[in-house]
Each structure stands twice: as C-alpha cells, then as structure tokens.
Design brief:
This protein is mostly helical and 315 residues long. The chain has one domain. It contains 15 helices and no strands. Helix 5 runs antiparallel to helix 6, helix 7 runs parallel beside helix 12 and helix 9 packs parallel to helix 12. The protein is globular, with a radius of gyration of 21 Å.
C-alpha cells in the first residue's frame, strides 16, 4: 500500500523517471517507513523497560562468576540505547562497582551493537529471522570477547584512579503507576527520536544515492560473491567511521540490494557501531593504549568471524 502511494507520488504526480525516480522514490519510501516503525518499536521496548531496573543489574552482578557476568552484561547491553561513546560512563560505573573488567567489556561491546534501535531497524528491513541471528551473533561476540579480555588480567592498564564505591550496591525497587510508565516510555521515545532522526535522513539519503547511481556490479565485484577479503575489508573500512545504527542501517539495506553479501554488510555495521576512532580517543583517557588495542583486536576478529559465519549460513 505504502509502496504504491510513493510510486504514484514520484511517477504520476512528480513525473520522475530513471535514476532520479529510483533515488527519490527510495528516499521517501524508506524514510517514512523507518521513522514510523522506529517510533512504534522504541516505544514498546521503552515501556517494557520501565519494568526493569538497571541498578538491579549492577547490584546483581557483584560477587557472581565472571562467565555469568559476561552473559548478563551482554544481555543488559540490549536494553541500553548507547552508541560506543555514550556507553563509556556506565562502563566506568561498572568498574567503580568492582565488577570484573571482562564483564564491563562485555557490556561495552554489546550496548552499541545490540541496542533496541539496531534491532528495530534490522527487523524493519530484513525480518525477524535475520534479526534473531544478528542478536545471537552479537551477544556471542560480546560474551566471548569480554571473557577473553577478563582472563588476560589487564586491570593494571586502567589509567584512571577509579575510587571503588563503598559498601554493597543495593537492589533498588522502583514502583511506577501505569500512567507514569506510559509517560516515561513516550518521553524516552521522543528523546531518542530527536537524537536519531537526522542520522536516519543522512543514512537513507546516502543509501538512496547508492541505490540510484552506483552500479550493482561495482559493489558485487569488490564485496560480493566469494571474495574472501570482503569481510575483513568491510571491518577495516568501518572502524574509522562513526555513526549509530540508525545512520548506517539504511546503507546496509542498499549494499545488500546491490550484491554485497549480508554477512559482509553486517560486519561493516558492527565495526561502525561497536568500534570507532572517537571511542578509542575517549577510552585513551581511561585505558592504556595496549588494552585498547587488545579490545579492538579481539572484537574486530570476532566481527570478522561472525561475518564469515553469516555469509555461510545464508548462502
């Protein structure tokens, strides 16, 4: 229905044709579709999150086995809407709470890669099966990456003198009325929408240009088919970039339409959201360069492996 309306607008009313029509049509169709579904899905997830207290997680993680902590911290990342940089304050909070370093890294990996915005966009563009596989692989990278870092005893590379919190964290119980939950969910949805709408427009705009003007065989030649170097190349190109899922997901849709394998495209997205140069610059004030390098290397290798597995499963 929506597709027919957009076609009528661009072809019959505006009289567009050829590549110009493909570009404008794609931009209008995807922008409205993505923004509408983002509002709906983020509101639903935000409402469900009002029943979940983040302070409980920090308190609950204290004293638990490290692997258990890695798993819980990775799942916790799903409900925290942070990019790689904005997840750092909570990362420091975990360190202050005397939570093991590897567990904090599981959260730092998972939060930007598996947050609800990424999940909502994936579901919108690729359906629930691809979304489920992505979440599973994303959690796997966060759990294993954090576990490996935790076993390397790298606490000496924390540069900041982070004063531990005194005493034990308490499991605070929050009681909200139904009206308060709905208001909090809407306020949160509106706040997130204000932060990401421009990224969506930019991402869809770039995607529309690629959709209309970049030949499919050009992308397929360098990042499609059986090219073994497609996945690591996508990760290398992704790390210097900085964006959130809202900005990069439309590009993933277009790149796959043009012939890039889905695992390669998702590896590109994972590298952009979970690893970025701005994140490294902020972390440099907190962590030694050696620990940052181990973090980026461990996660980068994990993302490359996930890209190959994704391509193998979906071929």
């Amino acid at each position: 229905m929506w597709k027919e309306l957009v076609d009528h607008l661009t072809v019959d009313m505006l009289g567009l044709s050829g590549r110009v029509n493909q570009t404008i049509n794609f931009f209008i169709y995807d922008t409205v579709k993505i923004l509408f579904l983002l509002i709906v899905i983020i509101f639903v997830v935000s409402y469900l999150r009002t029943h979940f207290n983040t302070e409980y997680v920090r308190a609950h993680l204290q004293g638990k086995s490290e692997l258990y902590g890695n798993v819980l911290a990775a799942f916790f990342g799903i409900i925290t809407p942070f990019c790689s940089c904005s997840a750092i304050p909570l990362f420091l909070g975990f360190i202050q709470a005397r939570i093991p370093l590897g567990v904090t890294f599981s959260f730092l990996i998972s939060s930007p890669m598996n947050n609800e915005v990424a999940i909502a966009l994936l579901f919108t563009l690729f359906g629930w099966k691809i979304t489920a596989i992505y979440i599973g692989f994303g959690l796997l990278v966060a759990i294993i990456g954090g576990f490996i870092i935790g076993k390397m005893n790298l606490e000496k590379y924390i540069l900041l003198d982070v004063k531990p919190m005194e005493g034990e964290l308490e499991e605070v119980e929050l009681k909200l009325t139904q009206k308060q939950r709905l208001k909090e969910a809407w306020d949160y949805t509106y706040d997130i929408f204000k932060k990401i709408w421009l990224y969506v427009l930019i991402g869809v705009g770039v995607g529309a240009l690629i959709h209309g003007y970049v030949p499919a065989d050009f992308i397929a030649k360098y990042a499609g088919g059986d090219n073994w170097y497609g996945v690591p190349l996508a990760v290398i190109f992704g790390i210097p970039m900085y964006s959130n899922a809202a900005g990069v997901m439309p590009l993933v849709e277009v790149l796959t339409d043009k012939g890039m394998l889905l695992g390669t495209a998702l590896s590109f997205m994972m590298a952009i959201t979970a690893l970025s140069l701005p994140e490294a610059m902020i972390l440099k004030k907190i962590l030694h360069v050696r620990l940052i390098g181990i973090f980026f290397g461990t996660v980068g290798i994990g993302i490359i492996c996930i890209g190959y597995l994704f391509n193998y499963i979906l071929q």
